[in-house]
Specification:
- The protein is α/β, with parallel strands linked by helices.
- The protein has helices at about 25-35, 40-50, 55-70, 70-80, 90-100, 110-120, 130-140, 140-150, 155-165, 170-175, 195-205, 265-280, 300-310, 315-320, 345-355, 360-365, 425, 430-445, 470-480, and strands at about 185-190, 210-220, 230-240, 255, 290-295, 325, 330, 335-340, 370-380, 400-410, 450-460, 480-485, 495, 500, 515-520.
- Strands 5, 8, 9, 10, 11, 12, 13, 14 and 15 form a nine-stranded mixed sheet that branches. A four-stranded antiparallel sheet has the order 2-3-1-4.
- The two termini are about 35 Å apart.
Amino acid sequence: MRHPSPASKNHKPSSNLIMNGSVRVRVIRTLLVIQNGQSLASVLDPLLNSLHDGDKGFAHALLLTTLRQWHALARLLDSLADNPIDEVEVRTTIQVGLVQLLYLEVADHAAIHETVEAAKEVGFAHATGLINAILRKVAKNPNKFRKKCNKNHSLPNWLAYQLKQDWSDQYDALTQGLRQSAPMFLRVNAAATSVTEYQEALNGAEIETELTEMTTGFCLPSASNAAPVTLATTGLRLRQSTAVSALPDFADGIVSVQDMHAQLAAPIIHRALMSKVSADKSQAGLDNNELYILDACAAPGGKLAHWLELLSSEDASVLFHVKQDDTVATSVPTGIKLTAIDNEASRIERIYDNLKRLNFTQTDLAQSSSGIDLDIVCADATRWRSTGASKKQDSAKNSGVFDAILLDSPCTATGVIRRHPDISLLRTEEDVEQTVSLQAEILQNLWPQLKVGGYLLYVTCSILKQENILQMQDFVSRHDDAAAVAFTEACSWGIEQAIGRQCLPIDRDGGDGFYYALLQKTMA
């Protein structure tokens, strides 16, 4: 979904990533290919793997900080230059130098000399005089220029304008928050151990963490009890990010890295599903011995794995009831048919890799007593139709297949810019319109496949209202059988919206930007 923004009108950087030369040269070349449309995720590992261990930390900090401050640095550079600088390589090299002087506390002489030498290696020796002059000017009064750089946002102007329109009250805190790094959160597999027990294991490994608990409240129309539902989600926030290889029992699937706000998805849709199961059991004569659930746009599989953890912890007797006739009570075969789809084969492989580590492969599930049948499908969610449960469908109007759908919808990912700062370089205003259209197509295709009484949880990691609340309002207005489930004041997270709730990445110790809306399908 990422698209490049033109780096200049006259020159486009090369898309070839060449990993040789000094650390600064390699960072500059990495920034150039990012400006040409490649994502940070695709080039970060090649960069770090090309370096000696002692250089990796500096290269990582230099690259990420330059990306986070990119637009602010570009405006500062324009104010420092007597004439417009059109060559992308020269602009990039100067911005790398500015980051060293203003944010990384590199000694002036080292920052200036090594950056000038990097320009020569990149092939722009003719610009070394200009680069040297600008960096020396900044080095004379770094506090002044740092203050100037930090005064406003570091976003493309179109995005800053849209955030001002959407979140005027939170605008200053939001735009500054997006310039910071994001904390590292852990989700503990509750089926394997408790959060407090794992925190003790982390303490033993000298990894400091803090418990983070969020409360979610919502009113489920199908609940047998009219009282609102309240549930708690508990995770761990690391006081300092660390390599996953250092986490105790990570390879054994005891813990996963997942943003705290992303950890809300599985508990919400799972609790809604359990409410539907309870409502179905209370209806006389309803024979529902199998559940059909869908995780749409499932890669890389974090929310899918979380849902599997919750499903595996359920007692089958709670999920399914006993079929009765006049004389004999016999157990009905039980089962959960979980389908996960994504439209890219490479992303499907990431699902398999994650589930393998967590012991949730199809083979693992088949050998367990969970009764879960997992089917992972590479398919386009705008066109895909379920076939595995076709016998469960009747010809009645609004008949559907799935009891619950988790739609982790494609979005512009503006809520995770802290973790993926390349987004602010690559995303364009046109991408928003295309994404909103894609979201609507997916919703239109999946909604008929949801059973009456079933739930669809719509999730994005965007902070743009056009992709979130406005998308939901438009959808509900066009579907008489779509009822928005109200979140209650018990929620300790997010900002209440007309439909759903919006999390904003404002708190430097808090989670990313996510939007949640829960819909129930009713009789039209």
